[in-house]
Amino acid sequence: MTQPFELVVNGVSVRVDADPDTPLLHVLRDDLDLKGARFGCGVGLCGACFVQLDGRVAASCDVPMWSAAGRAVVTVEGLAPGDGLHPVQQALIDEQAAQCGYCISGIAVSAAALLDRDPAPSEQAVIEALDRNLCRCGVQRRIVRAVLRAGSPETAR
Q1: Which architecture, in CATH terms, is 87-151?
Q2: pTM (2 decimals)?
Q3: Which terminus of the chain, N or C, has less C-beta within 10 A?
């Protein structure tokens, strides 16, 4: 049985009707037409569906609506205000850090959360922050370089 849920998605208050156990991922994609978070493993282990939930990285495939109610959600679409790109999004493009692109939205969300906590992270901090993000294309070095570039553009190269 569906019920109304209110939450803030990318800075906008929204109300959706959903079953309480519906994963946040499905509401984002199907009800709110935000396609950046992707279904990967369905159990919160791959990172393709990562969003920020009250500022912390969360697997939206594993967050039921009853748990998301009243909280702030930031998807890859909402990382930067307006039509611009978040520095990590721009750096991922500049470093050509996406190959197939399936995982990159979740990686961008994780990297942005890291840069919010630590604007100039070490390489090891980037590696640790992205540990839960699975990329099968083998471009991890480019991804790490991009996050370092976004955090400290003058020292990333």
Answers
A1: Orthogonal Bundle (1.10)
A2: 0.93
A3: N
